[in-house]
Amino acid sequence: MSQNPPLDPVWNVSEIGETRGFEDIVSRGGGGDGDDADLPKTVGRYQIESMLGSGGMGRVYKAFDPSLNRHVAIKVLRELDPELCERFALEARSQARVEHEFVLKVYEVGEEKGRPFIAMQFIGGGTLGACSSTMRVEERLNVMRKVAEGVHAAHKVGLIHRDLKPGNILVERTDDGEWKPYVTDFGLAREQFTRGITATGIVVGTLEYMSPEQARGETEQLDRRSDVYSLGATLFEMLAGRPPFKESSIIVMMRLVIEEDPPLLRSLNPRTPVDLETIIAKCLEKEPQRRYESARALAEDPTASLNEAIQSYQTALRADRSHVAAHHGTGYAYWLIGRWEADHGRDPVTPFGLAIESYKRAIEANPRFVASYVGAGNVSLILGEHALLHGKEAEQTFSQAVTFYRKCLDVNPNVAMAWSNTGLAHWRIGYSVAMKGQDPGPSLREAIACCQRAIQIDPRYEYGHLNMGLAYEEQGTYELSCGRDPSATLSRAQSCYEAAEQINQNDALVQGNMSRVHLIRAQYALRTGRDPGDALRMCIARCQRALRLNPESEDAFLVMGQAYEAEADHAFLSQREPVKAIQLARESVTKALLINPTSYLCYHQQGTVTVLAARWAMIRGRSPDDDLRRAHEAFQKAVELNPRDPRPFTGMANAWHWKARWELSRQRSSDEAVAMGFSAIDKALALNPADPEALATKGALLLAEAAATGDVKRAGAAKSTIEKALELNPLLRLEYGTFLGEAENLESGRIAR
Q1: Lowest CB count within 10 Å: 333, 401, 497, 589, which one?
Q2: Catalytic residue at 163?
Q3: Is the pTM of this model over 0.70?
Q4: Candidate list 65, 163, 275, 645, residue with the active-site label
């Protein structure tokens, strides 16, 4: 239960005033405020070279690690106060949990003569506060974009920093001359959704960069958006030369932070682009829900990202963009409304359409403003996704997205996001044509080429690797559907996802994508008569990892359900009991539907698993009727949500086929079941006449009809239909070969009615 904040928060000066004097000195490279004659010779295995400085909690030394032949920074606690020891241990644990290139690495936590120490990465530059004056504006923006990525990595593992500021960001120049930042000093960090150490109403942090809720002492209300505020305040200082609020009086500062709006950035720096001012103002909103939802959202704002601000800054200095900003901002507002409508199960087409029109007007006002092209492209992508998931034509919308991204690249060919998203749109076009039974190869090759270009521009751009992996994965899925070995293509997809994982090990999306690669491998093994066990275990492990990172991942639950379904299929083929696998598959898809009750893919999966349960009931001599009824309901729901995907119709026809077989085994009429099955399968084949699964299912229905009537011609039709399906996909032989044999025997009269 949350506490009411105290009327007069108690300020712990050692936690507010002195924190800025500690990490600021980690990278000064020598000197500090002590006498080298008093230096210890060693701390642990580390050879002390100089004291970098001292702060409220302890001292920091530059040291050499002879074991690994590298310099490190050693932080040693000054006194053994239990609370300080707790803070010290928290800092080490927190910072060590975040593995990201823009977060300072913790190498070791140890003790020297009873005093705790931390061995950290040594940075030879300085703090952002000290070095920003030597940076160009573009460099400061680029540094802050990277800082936001590092902070997002901390948020992904559940940590809130609570003291982000220029003094807690170290920077150094890389060999290619770029500035690289490192987020550090997690001494005030706490687990999200826990009370943390400071649960007494004591306000900690640094006022100039502190969110209003943190200044009010609302410890339990702090979340990632509190850090977003601090990032905005830091970015404000990088561009204005001062933080949003600056007063010598703590009481006055508190009132300003809690009650007053910060000055507009352009009032302090008139050359600031309007969209950049808007980004920072959004970070500094008093109400957390009005800020960016995450540091990643700040780093990659879909319509006016920091990345785009960097690339358009010089143009912005020369252009009058008041009309551009108005139209661009309106487009963004409509985009937000559309996302809200979609998230709440409503039709977002109208607000998304208005967003695109607003972006078009912004482009007319300034054809060189790349952010509006990207914004329009992103909205088109989302519109296409929405259409695809609701059974509407989507290819034209995805092509529109490509057009917008290409126009952005005509203005600036070095926007990695635009190249990557162009690839994403081509991937979706490929997916759409594959659904119709056409070759997605040309679209997927274009997608791969675009993503390769994005990676050439920025090898650390995670989504370039992810989107290229999606294209290879879709190609592998298509190869499997044609009866070809997808192994080589899947290996390429896996390599892309592994590259993305190297950049961000805590992205649930990466884990989910990896799980699908293993699932497709398992399905190939299953259809070639091999044991899919290893691939299924790896698939499920990746799903579980994705769910640890994002417990609300509908896709992870869905893929896990498909993995358990494959396990049940293997049990059928191996003549083992599939009950446990069927139960786990059902539980997984139920959880997916709880997260997204409008997912037609989840309903389709629910129907497929329930048909397996019905088949097992038939084998045990029990009526499958209840399971088949539930399967029909699930497939019907999937069809209502997306009538353009042939798979739910095929699933429905397959369920009627097993119903017909059950009736025949009980010497009852199967006419109704067969008729309903034909009705469903005809709809599937109308959508994709060359769908091997649909053709094989139609052949099975023809066989059931022939078995009921003794019609030799129908048996011949069943045989030729199944043969056509196997010609299109030879991998279906294991599943439908028995039916083919039955049709041949019935046609030749070897099986009597």
Answers
A1: 333
A2: yes
A3: no
A4: 163
